Amino acid sequence: MAEASIYEIHDPRFRQMIVTSAGLDELYSGCRWAEGPVWFNDANQLLWSDIPNQRMLRWTPESGVSVYRQPSNFTNGHTRDRQGRLISCEHGGRRVTRTEIDGSITVLADRFDGAPLNSPNDVVVKSDGTIWFTDPTYGIMSDYEGYRAAPEQATRNVYRLDPATGELSAVATDFIQPNGLAFSPDETVLYVADSAASHDENLPRHIRAFDVLDGSRLDNGRVFCHIDNGIPDGIRTDVEGNLWSSAADGVHCFDATGKLIGKIRVPQTVANLTFGGPRRNRLFITATRSVYSVYVATAGAQMP
Q: Which InterPro entries match (predicted)?
């Protein structure tokens, strides 16, 4: 049974969220560090980053894998805005960009309070069009995933950008290394991973939750859950309000109270994940050198 090979059931509810006969499919192998998957339903394609190889790759069921963009400026996380355009975090440029319909690139944010950002990592778009992203220092710590540089921001922040006005505000400033982020389905909660344990095992390996006030401010920050194997990197929510997180041993699923209810084991350390496919019931997983997928019995909350 596929369940015995890849699924860990920690709560009976998890059994209703998976397809126990569904196996883990390896779609591609050959990356150095696969990150930032984003699904385009209108194009029936998955895009993701291979950061150290300076490229973005594309997978379609019909044609397999091809290069989408190279060089990529050490691009990491991606999402889409409400007009369907690609929003990307670039380590190399220390910026957040938008790829326009004609393929041109617009810089949305590269400085805060007059100084360069650290290295934008992951990004989500709220239903009002605002762009929320994290800015740890991973992309400037070495020349492997960016360009080594000293941080010029005093803190490693979570930002909110209003693309209509260009206003950029720091909505959380007390993280050590903010990483993946995701809204709850009703957008009243923002989850943000702190992956500082990646370089010091005594530092956080948890996901925090914040109440979203007036659609623009964060309050009541608290630890939502801890990752018991590895660190939390990319995270996503499903339509039922469960949170799915990357980890060293696979994908961990937590209910809305932060209780671990199950795991999908993956052979390589997982960096990120996203829901996709025509019904958003296919979980795409970037894991070190490979990209995997597995069908589930729920659907992703993120739009479009």
A: 6-blade_b-propeller_TolB-like (IPR011042), SGL (IPR013658), SMP-30 (IPR005511), SMP-30/CGR1_Lactonase (IPR051262)
**C-alpha angle 286/280/88, rounded to 5°?**
50
Q: What φ, ψ does residue 60 adopt, rounded to 5°?
A: -130, 150
Q: Annotation-wise, does 202 bind a ligand? A: no
Round to whole Å and give the CA distance between 254 and 252. 7
Residue 35 is labelled as binding a ligand: yes
**Is 201 among the annotated ligand-binding positions?**
no
Give the residue numbers marked as catalytic.
233
Q: Rg of the chain over CA atoms, in angstroms?
A: 18
pLDDT (average), residues 80-96 = 98
- Name residue 296's beta-bridge partners: 18
Mention every residue, 6+ apart, whose C-beta is less than 8 A from residue 74.
51, 52, 54, 90, 91, 92, 139, 145, 146, 147
53 is in an annotated binding site: no
β-bridge pairing 206-213 and 217-226: antiparallel
Q: How many CB atoms lie within 10 A of CB 40?
A: 16
Backbone dihedral region for residue 187 (phi beyond 0: left; psi -120 to 50: alpha; all else: beta): left
On the question of pLDDT at 5 being above 90, the answer is no
pLDDT band at 73 (very low <50, low <70, confident <90, very high): very high
Residue 121 counted as an annotated binding residue: yes
Query: Has residue 1 got a pLDDT over 60?
Result: no
For 33, other C-beta atoms within 10 Å of its C-beta total 18
- Domains of the chain by range and CATH? 5-293 (2.120.10.30)
The whole-number pLDDT of residue 303 equals: 83
Query: Do residues 203 and 196 make contact, with C-beta atoms less than 8 angstroms apart?
Result: yes
Give me 194's structure tokens: 């702190």
Contact 100, 135 (CB under 8 A): no
This model's pTM is above 0.90: yes
